[in-house]
Amino acid sequence: MGSFSIWHWLIVLVIVMLVFGTKKLGNMGSDIGKAVKGFKDGVKGDDDKPAAPAAPGTIDVDAKEKK
Length: 67
Known about the structure:
One of its GO terms (biological process) is protein transport by the Tat complex. The chain has 67 residues and is mainly α.
């Protein structure tokens, strides 16, 4: 089993496109990109940003179940 030539990779690419379709592959690519960006943002951390204060006029209460 030697190394694969460019023709082997082109045939594999055509078969993958026939099975999944170009729209599905594009969606998967964008989902992977969003996941990588989210991971980078998570690693970078949000420690430098101060917490946003509550908007004036809002009331922070706990909801209770009605019986």
